[in-house]
Amino acid sequence: xxxxxxxxxxxxxxxxxxxxxxxxxxxxxxxxxxxxxxxxxxxxxxxxxxxxxxxxxxxxxxxxxxxxxxxxxxxxxxxxxxxxxxxxxxxxxxxxxxxxxxxxxxxxxxxxxxxxxxxxxxxxxxxxxxxxxxxxxxxxxxxxxxxxxxxxxxxxxxxxxxxxxxxxxxxxxxxxxxxxxxxxxxxxxxxxxxxxxxxxxxxxxxxxxxxxxxxxxxxxxxxxxxxxxxxxxxxxxxxxxxxxxxxxxxxxxxxxxxxxxxxxxxxxxxxxxxxxxxxxxxxxxxxxxxxxxxxxxxxxxxxxxxxxxxxxxxxxxxxxxxxxxxxxxxxxxxxxxxxxxxxxxxxxxxxxxxxxxxxxxxxxxxxxxxxxxxxxxxxxxxxxxxxxxxxxxxxxxxxxxxxxxxxxxxxxxxxxxxxxxxxxxxxxxxxxxxxxxxxxxxxxxxxxxxxxxxxxxxxxxxxxxxxxxxxxxxxxxxxxxxxxxxxxx
Amino acid sequence: xxxxxxxxxxxxxxxxxxxxxxxxxxxxxxxxxxxxxxxxxxxxxxxxxxxxxxxxxxxxxxxxxxxxxxxxxxxxxxxxxxxxxxxxxxxxxxxxxxxxxxxxxxxxxxxxxxxxxxxxxxxxxxxxxxxxxxxxxxxxxxxxxxxxxxxxxxxxxxxxxxxxxxxxxxxxxx
Lengths: 489, 174
Ligand SMILES: Cc1cc2nc3c(=O)[nH]c(=O)nc-3n(C[C@H](O)[C@H](O)[C@H](O)COP(=O)(O)OP(=O)(O)OC[C@H]3O[C@@H](n4cnc5c(N)ncnc54)[C@H](O)[C@@H]3O)c2cc1C
Prior knowledge:
Helix content of chain A is 32%, strand content 25%. Chain A is of the alpha+beta class. Chain A has a domain at 224-452: 3-Layer(aba) Sandwich (Vanillyl-alcohol Oxidase, Chain A, domain 3), CATH 3.40.462. Chain B has one domain (8-168): Growth Hormone, Chain: A. Chain B is built from six helices and no strands. Chain B starts with a helix and ends with a helix. In chain B, 35% of the residues are buried. Chain A binds chain B through residues 9-11, 14-15, 17-18, 21-22, 24-26, 28-30, 33-35, 343-346, and chain B through 33-34, 36-37, 40-41, 43-44, 47-48, 50-51, 54-55, 58, 87-89, 91-93, 96, 100, 103-104. The complex binds flavin-adenine dinucleotide. Flavin-adenine dinucleotide binds at residues 47, 82-89, 93-94, 104, 124, 146-148, 151-152, 154-156, 158-159, 161-163, 206-207, 211-212, 337, 340, 351, 446, 481 of chain A.
């Protein structure tokens, strides 16, 4: 004991203690350091923080009666309401100037799980993670969700999101029943054969036709898959994908295209999840792992040039290392997201997604090669990830991005925040959208709207009837947001 | 002359540190994101203070050793915290550095202070003065914590300068 006390009195020992503590603290400094959302004093933003706006108030939603009263009152008094889930949409979809924001996050109960019927009924502010936690012990899993589980049910259905599943169609199709609150304050129970077509406008309706209160979703087995990975040339992808779609043994699929200078748009990694027919009830949901290392590697890649080549190679090592491994369906639907956080001051990283018909992929990639700089190391506008997903034809929603079977190219773009830099990014993305439109493609609406109104109209020819229905169903414009103003006004 | 700085400066420093503490905490809370990190930053401060204390003791307790630089260094830390608008990206790391430096300097200062003749008088006076100042401040609308931090930092730097000049005079007189 005496020895320890003596030891602790040594200045160098205390110095080492401080050093060790400092390392511990550094390791625990969160990666996410940005502030966005409603925590901003008086100003609301969403994920990118690009469109700050003053709002009147935020209502933390906890029950439907309170919600109904707010909507009815807004209707009478001519007030505006926006609906917010976890605010990962990036174009001001969740708030409006001087409007009321419904923060749905607290409205998140799992109401019922029916193991036999394979359904879950859940309130719309719950995240996919909440649902996964509830259904995994029953050996069940979601049919369609994004590759990450960090979004709310209401938010994802309102953008009709998509992910890695290639078998269950659009997310909207997995909804069996739904309770909604209409702009006039009526609570409606909707089923799949809804004659008034509320589902058509609420699903994929960007919160403009009412509040989704709860939904009953179809589930499937939490099957165990084996992962198969491969590096292929971009020009071989189309035929590869057709084989994947024909092979009913493959449940999920996605791919990644190189944006590294050495292999720019020439190489791809493909990742397939093959069925094993084994249902899993015991494997727990995976937590985020290796976040710091992944973020470090990604940040290096973000610098472009040789470092991006290195990052692409690092991905090869990773992709090889998971080849042959097994994973449960639920775990394949909850990939890491924290490592993606972009925290460089004065710059922003935004998502964009372009959809193109499956059979136009090869020609489209050729055109992209002409449009984008192969080495963007010295450019302000940097592309440093393109993931490819399959999005099946959508007949259910009123603004469908998948008018036929499409491939979605999810791109991560980084650019500066000076006026000139934003203008340049806008020009680049508009050019990219033009190329996409030439091939009969569309672009995704939950992201920052760099696109022009004309590009929107061309991508979503149904916008007129969307607007007409909006006027009929919500004549006092109770539900609005910045996205609505940008495209529909 | 020597007595004057021994009488007042350590009192200004101890009182000032307690008075400034709430403002510093507001800043630290802002940059530390989670309670765990906030608490750990304090733990780091504490360990660093123990280190500083012991460091003073191990130097053979030379009465005036380094104390002027301690004041200036503390002052600079407060000025950095209060004045510079650092991007959020770096703030937690800066907070960690300031906790280590401030902790070390405070430990060193405390060890030195206990050796001064006026220490026990200061201990009582400091409690009283802090109480009175805090009541006074509670009636003031907080302009911005950064202003208080910067002002206190500047006062500390002035104290350090004063010590240097006094030390110099003292030597000359000898
Ligand atoms: C890192 C990242 C990865 C992404 N990956 C994918 C992906 O893989 N696939 C994909 O399809 N999308 C993806 N997205 C887009 C994202 O899925 C959508 O933005 C989704 O809407 C996010 O859910 P949220 O809870 O954050 O919704 P929010 O952004 O909060 O809301 C989205 C829209 O839904 C409306 N809304 C929210 N709750 C309700 C409700 N209860 N009733 C009615 N309307 C409501 C809002 O008004 C808004 O218009 C990604 C976004 C990010 C930032």
